[in-house]
Amino acid sequence: MPFFGFKGGVHPDYNKSLTSGKPTETLPVKAGDKYYLPLSQHIGAPAKPVVAKNQQVKTGELVAEAGGFISAAIHSPVNGKVTSISHVIHPMAGRMEGIIIEADETNDEFEPISDEGTFQQIVQRAGITGMGGATFPTHVKLSPPKEVDSLLINGAECEPYLTCDHRMMLEQTLKVIKGAVLIKEKLNIKNLIIGIEKNKPDAIQIFKRYEKEYGFELVPLYVKYPQGGEKQLIKACLNRVVPEGKLPVEVGVIVHNVGTAAAVYEAYYDKKPLFERIVTVTGAVVTPKNLRVRVGTPILSLIDACGGFLGVPKKIVMGGPMMGMAVTSVETPVMKGTSGILVYREEDMPDLTKYPCIRCGRCVDACPMLLVPSIMDRFVKKEMYEELEQHHVMNCIECGCCSYVCPSRRTLVGGFKTSKRHIMQRIKERGAKNA
Amino acid sequence: MPDRKFLVTFSPHDRHPETTNKVMMTVVIAMLPIIANSIWYYGYYAVKGYVLTTLFCIGFEYLFDKISGRPVAIKDNSALVTGLLLAMNMPAAAPWWTMLVGSFIAIVVSKQVYGGLGQNPFNPALVARVFLLIAWPVEMTSWVKPSPIIHGFLFDTVSSATPLGTLKSDIIAHGHVVTANLATYTDQIIGNVSGCMGGDGAVFVLIGGLFMMNRKVISWHIPISFLGTLFAFTGIIWLINPQRTIDPFLHIVSGGAMLAAFFMATDYVTSPVIKRAQIVFGIGCGLIAGIIRIYGSYPEGTGFAVLIMNAFVPLLDKYMRPLSFGEVKK
Predict the structure, then answer these.
(1) What is the pTM for the complete model shown?
(2) Which chain B residues contact residue A297 at CB under 8 A?
């Protein structure tokens, strides 16, 4: 399989060795602990609660149903009692509607989901979303409106520090492969391609062993961030360019994370809904670990399981250092898309002294979407949204390469994120006017 | 649960170690071979020049920031770079007050009044040089014959024309190149010819330039397209009529061509951010420099060339923007 690569990108310090050699440990459920389930853990409409306060629930029992087609169901991660249906902490929204469950004695058993209906319906019933972080409901991706000839399984894990996908590929190799093959067969897709970055040679070696038997192509990927970006991965592996504003289906491809493939396997064969995942807890904690945790576990429990903070924590990031969200509270729960918890001390923080933009052009060279961040940033400061739209800010994948390389420490990607929201609003208003 | 206040910022949370003040420092380090070379040939005069322009530039930066109530920005090292570049663009024997005026023009008139670092459309050191050249042509063209430091740190100056100046006057007087009056390649490359403090000594400029490329502070696009175009343009004229001008090799190593290509045209603020626009920018610089050298009345045109192309930077960046990933051409 040839490797085509993509333009732009950066080479951050990966720091994966903190946890890459550590087998996943399971974080046990303690009776009395509270689990927080925000109703919006995915892209799309929030889920709707189907339980009442004080109701007893079992692990795997449906507690909130999908709020539409582009939405995902939520299941109880533990045996326990619903103590409140009000607000929980959410890293993006601050506070958000959610369900709080107090755990009783909980073991590995769970309420199986029904296996009636189509493959897509089963996946939908299991509440699976993209496990890589973008959390797009998986059943939507599995219902392509166009013919798809290639299924790309994303094992790049290009975010520094994170090793949850790496561990999954090593420890649950066959689950990942069989899940991928299942999707391939159910959707009648011709090619199955699994891409793994070359900084995980052990994972590549294991997958290589099964390449012939399961009929997939293994593509060792050149190590560069954001190799695991959907559009970048498609360009790198298949040399296809997804048109601006379109989904990968447009070029006959669907992309799934390795964790998603494994979750699909579990939903279909084990009737297991999505209520737990692997999270890499790393940075300034005493013993960085890969932990299998229930969705809804507050991150403090994860940090405690790693021996607590090392030194004085200054910033806690949910996800990786490039795209992760800084959280305000240790009560923030692990969600379906939480791949990592990264703790920074004051001394781990990079020098953030701001200077004026010197137009060095590093951001322009780093942008994998071939945008011109330095020029666009001037429009952001002046709220010139039309110019930003003309400079294709909507094509920005928010990977953060521009801010990462900026020697003047400008908040480039931060400005684009906020501007994109404004522009979305304007587009909506324009549509409403024309209608 | 212990409630701590955590810092919340936009992602990314890690940053590349390169910062603006470090970039500027790398440029200063890249200038060291050139500075050493000027001190070797101009001794006391070079030391005086570099010290004065640097002090004046940093002083004006400090004063302007103080008076205008902005945070003092001398920490970013950009005034230091401007000061050193200004000295390189002046004759060794230029009087101290031209350095004072030049620093004022560079820092205040061509940078700070536009809004400070990153906002100036023209290269500050070059604006100052051109201003001084037009305002005090005698002082700015009183070239000193280089005298290696082993012959004395403070020496009696002997005035002498620059090789390009000699060439120009020969062509005006005789209508053709007088080969006997040309500088040798060796003298030109090591800087043993009269001229601006930092312009000659092509090899030292090249070392600095390659160092900056190695440290990824500059890319090849501007220097190569600049020098390549100057080489090609003067080469064609020379091939057609060798009496009209010197050979293209001598062209790119004489005067300020090397310094302009590696240190002046590559100034981030006043050059395009888009790579293919940088190539057009470099071609423009090389072409204008060649035209001025051969057809203009000034013997050297690289400074003007860079300034003229500086004016086109916003247009180049606007119209040469690459299609973004997956963008459909309208």
Answers:
(1) 0.92
(2) none
Identify the band that residue A435 occupies on the pLDDT scale cut at 50, 70 and 90.
low
CA of A153 vs chain B CAs: smallest distance (Å): 21
Cα distance between the two ends of chain B: 57
CB-based contact, B329 to chain A, within 8 Å:
no
Of all residues in chain B, the one with the smallest CA distance to A243 is: B326
Q: Which domains does chain A have, with CATH numbers?
A: 16-20+127-269 (3.40.50.11540), 32-105 (2.40.50), 275-349 (3.10.20.600), 362-434 (no CATH)
Give the tokens for residue B85. 């570049």
Q: What is the mean pLDDT of each run of 10 residues along chain B (330 residues)?
A: 73 94 96 95 94 97 93 90 96 94 96 93 96 94 89 84 90 87 89 89 95 96 97 96 92 93 96 96 97 92 95 95 85
Residue among A276, A209, A318, A346 at smallest CA distance from A60: A276
How far is the alpha carbon of A96 from chain B, nearest alpha carbon, in Å?
18
What's the token pair of residue A91?
């890293």
Under 8 Å CB pairs connecting chains A and B tally to 175
Is the pLDDT at A112 greater than 50? The verdict is yes
> How many whole angstroms separate alpha carbon B283 and alpha carbon A43?
49
Among A186, A253, A178, residue whose Cα is nearest residue A216? A178
Closest listed residue to residue A318, CA positions, set A17, A94, A34, A91: A91
Closest chain B CA to residue A331? B1
Task: Please report the ipTM that was assigned to this predicted complex.
Answer: 0.91
Output A134 or A97, whichever has higher pLDDT.
A97
Alpha carbons A2 and B156: distance in angstroms, whole number: 69
Tokens standing for B33? 């071979």
Instruction: Give the chain A residue nearest B268 (alpha carbons).
Output: A360
What's the mean per-residue pLDDT of chain A? 93
Q: Which of B226, B217, B220, B325 is nearest to B284 (CA)?
A: B226
Question: A409 to chain B: which residues are within 8 Å by CB?
Answer: 15, 19
Is B265 an interface residue toward A (CB < 8 Å)? no
Closest-CA residue of chain B to A301: B1
The residue behind tokens 């020029």 is A375
The distance of A303 to chain B (nearest Cα, Å) reads 13
Under an 8 A CB cutoff, do B18 and A407 touch?
A: yes
Q: What is the dihedral of CA B258, B261, B262, B266, to 10 degrees?
A: 160
